[in-house]
């Protein structure tokens, strides 16, 4: 199958240099391979997503010379799909409702007998406050947060027998094979639905990548710790695992990662200053488009 990749920004602010690097790298890789490049909007959090930002993202990408194939996928249009997957996991006894606030979780995780709270891909590792001894049964609850019972999930995915591994390029330190301990201790019971939001990022991204037949996920190294969660979900839901490429992060002069609030580094600000798309490529150390060689991400 030919290479298919995507760029999936959240329309909650302007694109900055870090996004530009991610989008250009994924786009150039697809084009060099004669493959497909898709644009998806991670707009599940409707309290923060804005149509103006979505429009600005499309303008910035077009200005950078990025073209995408087919229509833009919006996560907010896919809630029934996410709900069906939650129902399937619920039926198998792998989910439970959670009523903890972020503050509850921090307080429970840092209680004196717990020692210093451990951090996983979603912040403080969930201390298990709402985890029931037995799967809750009954109908799938609505409007509440739902967490994956990681001990049961790891067993259901067969990780006690075959450790989980996946193909990754571009990282200094690939994960090797991961057993159930990694999931229970270093990740914990992640949320697959958040209160008031139909699904969490982890569930949505896995279903979107599968439904869009993505063969290569090209995204920042900040997401590398979340990838085992995505591969585990693919196992549980019977979905294929793409090849993952976690790219370097773009940092400012002081070595700090760029964030959305760095408006000075917004692509629109550079454009207003009279910079060109090739200036942006130079800033993130990417060759101009006519220098594109064959991609090296493998297949
Ligand atoms: N919206 C996510 C982000 O910007 C996308 C992550 C992904 O590509 O999987 O971090």
How would you characterize the overall build of this protein?
The protein has 299 residues and is an alpha/beta fold. The protein has 10 helices and 11 strands. The chain has helices spanning 17-32, 51-63, 79-91, 102-109, 150-156, 180-187, 201-211, 227-237, 267-272, 277-283; strands at residues 4-7, 36-41, 73-74, 95-98, 119-120, 123-124, 145-148, 168-169, 191-193, 216-220, 243-247. The strands form 4 sheets. A 3-stranded parallel beta sheet has the order 1-2-3. A 3-stranded antiparallel beta sheet has the order 4-7-9. Strands 8-11-10 form a 3-stranded parallel beta sheet, with helices on one face. A hairpin with a 2-residue loop joins β5 (119-120) and β6 (123-124). α5 (150-156) packs antiparallel against α6 and α7 crosses α8 (227-237). The model has no long low-confidence stretch (mean pLDDT 92).
Biggest beta sheet summary: 3 strands, parallel
| Cofactors, ions and other ligands in the entry | glutamic acid
**Overall outline:** globular
Model regions low in confidence, pLDDT < 50 over at least 5 residues? none
Number of strands: 11
Structural class: alpha/beta
What is the rounded distance between the termini? 9 Å
Strand order of the largest sheet: 1-2-3
Radius of gyration, taken over Cα atoms and rounded to an integer in Å: 20 Å
% residues in beta strands: 5-15%
Secondary-structure element string? EHEHEHEHEEEHEHEHEHEHH
Helix content: 25-40%
Let me know the average pLDDT. 92
Number of helices: 10
Topology of this structure?
Elements: E1 4-7, H1 17-32, E2 36-41, H2 51-63, E3 73-74, H3 79-91, E4 95-98, H4 102-109, E5 119-120, E6 123-124, E7 145-148, H5 150-156, E8 168-169, H6 180-187, E9 191-193, H7 201-211, E10 216-220, H8 227-237, E11 243-247, H9 267-272, H10 277-283
Helix pairs in contact: 5-6, 7-8
Glutamic acid (GLU) binds at residues 8-10, 42, 205, 219, 223.
């Amino acid at each position: 199958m030919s290479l298919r990749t995507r760029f999936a920004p959240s329309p909650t602010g302007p694109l900055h240099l870090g996004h530009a690097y991610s989008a250009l790298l994924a786009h150039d890789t697809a084009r060099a391979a004669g493959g497909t490049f898709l644009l998806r909007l991670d707009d599940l959090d409707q309290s923060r997503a804005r149509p103006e930002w979505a429009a600005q993202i499309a303008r910035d990408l077009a200005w950078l010379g990025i073209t995408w194939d087919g229509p833009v996928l919006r996560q907010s249009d896919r809630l029934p799909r996410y709900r069906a997957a939650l129902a399937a996991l619920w039926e198998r006894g792998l989910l439970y409702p959670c009523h903890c606030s972020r503050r509850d979780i921090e307080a429970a995780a840092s209680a004196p007998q717990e020692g210093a709270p451990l951090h996983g891909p979603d912040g403080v590792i969930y201390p298990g406050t709402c985890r029931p001894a037995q799967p809750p049964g009954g109908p799938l609850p609505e409007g509440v947060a739902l967490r994956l019972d990681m001990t049961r999930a790891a067993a259901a995915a067969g990780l006690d027998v075959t450790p989980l591994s996946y193909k990754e390029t571009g990282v200094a330190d690939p994960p090797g094979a991961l057993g159930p301990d990694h999931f229970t201790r270093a990740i914990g019971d992640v949320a697959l639905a958040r209160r008031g939001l139909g699904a969490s990022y982890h569930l949505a991204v896995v279903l979107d990548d599968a439904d869009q037949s993505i063969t290569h996920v090209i995204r920042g190294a900040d997401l590398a710790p979340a990838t085992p969660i995505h591969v585990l979900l693919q196992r549980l839901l019977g979905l294929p695992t793409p090849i993952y490429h976690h790219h370097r992060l773009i940092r400012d002069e002081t070595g700090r990662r760029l964030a959305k609030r760095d408006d000075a580094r917004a692509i629109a600000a550079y454009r207003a200053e009279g910079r060109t798309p090739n200036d942006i490529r130079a800033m993130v150390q990417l060759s101009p488009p006519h220098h594109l060689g064959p991609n090296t991400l493998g297949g």
